[in-house]
Amino acid sequence: DNTTLVRRSEEIEWIGRVQQALRDDGFELHCQPVLPISKNRGAPHFEILLRMLDDDGEILAPALFMPAAERYQLMPLVDRWVIRNSLRALGSVWPSILATEAVFCLNLSGQSLTNTGFLAFVADELYQAGLPPENICFEITETAAISNIDEATMFMEALKSVGCRFALDDFGAGLSSFGYLKMLPVDYLKIDGSFVREVTTDKVSRSMVNAICQIGKTMGLQMVAEYVGDDETIYVLKRAGVDFVQGFHIGKPAPLKEITDLLQDRSKAESA
User: Fold this and answer.
1) Is 89 in a helix, a strand, or coil?
2) Which of 261, 221, 228 is nearest to 247 (CA)?
């Protein structure tokens, strides 16, 4: 089928570009704020996001290169690049942003959970960066966690034993969400964006958000809502029991250095 051949040809081209970016540090780290829905209800969180730079230095969205990296099993290498560069960048400025108590969230792919030596790599990078583990949160999608339930549980328990936090991303998109929650030692549930986007207009979406929050709260978890687009959505989510909100209405992604610079300024202002 010609369409399939074209798509595969494009993916193979992207594979070469991903491999080059890994060799030449052709990626850039960005951050998006994940803020407490009520003031004074917790420290700010920031999700670290990956971007690729083209030959002209322009930013390429992950949707362009991630599918190819996933199909051709490159995600463990991509995850290692993100973890190493994120933790080292944060470690270099941590003393000057310590007072903000910020938590930084890093995404992990399902491929990395089953990758030999990956857990040891993460533990070593945490140690080398000198960061407090409790200020680092790893995000794993619900689908990836359920598909690799034994590996995911072992990975989480090992890093939670030293203080790291975990979030289950895209929660509600899977088929057996509530049953598997008992097995996974997570701290946060990130409600799938398809429900959040329609929470003010669709009764089923609102009911799903309410049900997820109710179960999460019963289990002592904190709730995070992505794709928040307006104040009305925030109001509905707050009533449902959501703790943190994320989306363009809350704050757009910005380069990691811009975020750490802002946190340094805030830390100085608070100590002045």
Assistant:
1) helix
2) 228
Average pLDDT over residues 108-130: 95
With a CB cutoff of 8 Å and minimum separation 6, the contacts of 34 are 44, 45, 46, 47, 105, 224, 244, 245, 246, 250
Closest CA to 107 of 143, 150, 132, 131: 143
Residue predicted with more confidence, 121 or 1: 121
User: Which residues contact residue 117 at a Cβ distance below 8 angstroms, ignoring those fewer than 6 apart?
Assistant: none
pTM for this model (two decimals):
0.93
Instruction: Write the DSSP assignment of 44-65 as a string of letters.
Output: -EEEEEEEEE-TTS-EE-HHHH
Please tell me whether residue 191 adopts helix, strand or coil conformation.
strand
pLDDT score, position 189: 95
Q: Cα–Cα distance between 208 and 10 in angstroms, integer?
A: 38
Contact 135, 106 (CB under 8 A): no
8 Å CB contact between 223 and 210: no
- pLDDT for position 237: 97
